[in-house]
Amino acid sequence: MGARSVEDAHNAVLATAKELLAKGLVEGTAGNVSARMPDGNICITPSSVDYRTMALEDLVVIDTSGEVVTGTRAPSSEKSLHLACYEAFEEVGSVIHSHPVHATVFAVARLPIPACIDEFTVYVGGEVAVTEYAPSGTHDVGKAAVACLADRGAALLANHGMVAVGKDPADVLHVTACVERTAEIVLGAIALGGAVPLPEKVNRNFKGVYEYLRNN
Ligand SMILES: [Zn+2]
Fold this sequence. Notes:
By secondary structure, the chain is α+β, with helices and mostly antiparallel strands. It has seven helices and seven strands, in the order αββββαβαααββαα.
């Protein structure tokens, strides 16, 4: 899976990066968006460029070993996280790393976000786990994330933020926003006395829908 053309990938990555900031899912120049292209190379946002002024020519194309193929900027400092996801899961066509406030509260508390909303399991696959801790920008972040993403659309990076995977940037932005919204709702439910998980059978059925959507 991935973008239909090089042009598609660039347009989708740029539009999604700007929306990530507009939706408050990142702050400043944090976070990063990428898409797999038909030739197997990856289009990724650059390091330390303001999303508001970011243009198509700021995007960087890297190969699967992380070497720059085209572009004048340095690729995102979390490129190895993106590459690890593409290497592990051939059906994944896009990766987004973000720092949403409520999801990061769970990442800092090192608590999973429970599956307690129907659409959450449909789009994400079930409870979103916290990875093993690894310092930002290291290969270990990717290794830790991949361990949690085989049957899930997102994982919480311990003491850091979130990573989400899916077919294309718009799809992965939706997953990111869905996880963040659920994290906020669950925190509210905990304040009211606790979040009640979905019945196990319902959760299993919706997980089946997620797996179908991920692989088809
Ligand atoms: Zn980060």
